[in-house]
Write a structure and sequence with these properties.
Elements (H helix, E strand, L loop, with lengths): L2 H16 L4 H19 L2
Helix pairs in contact: 1-2
């Protein structure tokens, strides 16, 4: 894992999971996170 991946993962965990316990928000964050990972993987 590169540091880019770790920092983005930590950002999403902090911004969405820690600040909001609502299931919907966590699911939205995971969708965005997966999209970024896919973009990073192919660029």
């Amino acid at each position: 894992m590169s540091w880019h991946y770790k920092s983005i993962k930590n950002y999403f965990l902090l911004e969405y999971c820690s600040s909001s316990n609502q299931y919907k928000h966590i699911q939205e964050a995971l969708k965005i996170f997966r999209s970024i990972v896919v973009i990073m993987a192919y660029t």
